[in-house]
Model the fold of this input.
Amino acid sequence: MKPKIIVTGGTGYIGSHTIIELIRSGEFEAVAVDNCVRSTPETIGRIKEITGICVKHHAVDICDKKAFFAMIEQEAPIAGIIHFAAYKCVPESVEKPLMYYRNNLGSLENVLEACEKYHIPQLIFSSSASVYGDVKELPVTEATPFGKPFCPYAHTKQIGEQMIHFFAEQHPDFQSVILRYFNPVGNDMSGLNGELSPDKPNNLMPIVTQVAIGKMKQLTVFGTDYDTRDGSCIRDYIHVCDIADAHVKALQFLMNGKNESNCETFNLGSGNGVSVLEIIDAFEKVNGIKLNYIIGGRRPGDVPAIYSNSGRANELLGWHCRYTINDMVESAWKWEQHLLKSKQAE
Ligand code: WQD
Done:
């Protein structure tokens, strides 16, 4: 019997890619738990199309403790939980802070209580480079302290990490890994699974592909007057399949007892900073498409540059990025085209 892993947010962008990697590893049974308020149950079919496996899906709200615990009891014994389920839209978190605190922290509280009540020994927590805020010293390492959170979303990730730290201190048999993602982009190279952006996406890559396919008229580059090599903001873009692979390696790291403390933290980034204009250039070159964009003003809250030093994950998890910026822009475009074809077939 393979160790059973509960993947909350399992029909979401990173959750579904992680389920695919868990299946590809051949070592785990993955179970998706997701109320699909920000995703769709059709993702389960896409996972099956790619892996041949139809994973079990519980359409449960993690904040609904009674329903969540009933699901846990039904699925026991459980070897670990990978907790992705959270809202992650930065501007929305500014408009609706309480919705973010209630959902992101309430769900984590139920996950931790389930680990305690049902003796679930491992937890992998989806965190974000946004916990660092506006860092001056680059590259960022795990020792870089939390910065002033630039939005409630980032604040929920800081508080979430601290909740896990204090819980781990009281539960020595509980083992956890916190993974801080930089900028996840791209999709499964098959082009058959990807991010279902909201009608009006906020993140760069989905906007680039929606402009390229004509769903959006024009891309605005938010500022080219920053103190960077080409004036546009620099980020550490990382392929979503590399992020997913890190979750499998983090589970193996805990199961093989390689962790020193029972709450370990790792940065997941490529270690390379890439600018907005360089992303546009790569997208145009790799996909042979001219993008319609203009240069606009700065977006409030943007930091000029942030990128990671992922040496700790390389060394302790044996995790390395396999995909390049070209793979990211190619797979992002393939997915956007797949979405259009699926819509036309409806
Ligand atoms: C990247 C760069 C924009 C759109 C956010 C969250 C982070 C994580 C990833 C959840 C910036 C520029 C963007 C556009 C642009 N989310 N841009 N025109 O802001 O680095 O990170 O998403 O985990 O927590 O903070 O990502 O993709 O929004 O922006 O010029 O139309 O692209 O200014 O420099 P960001 P992003």
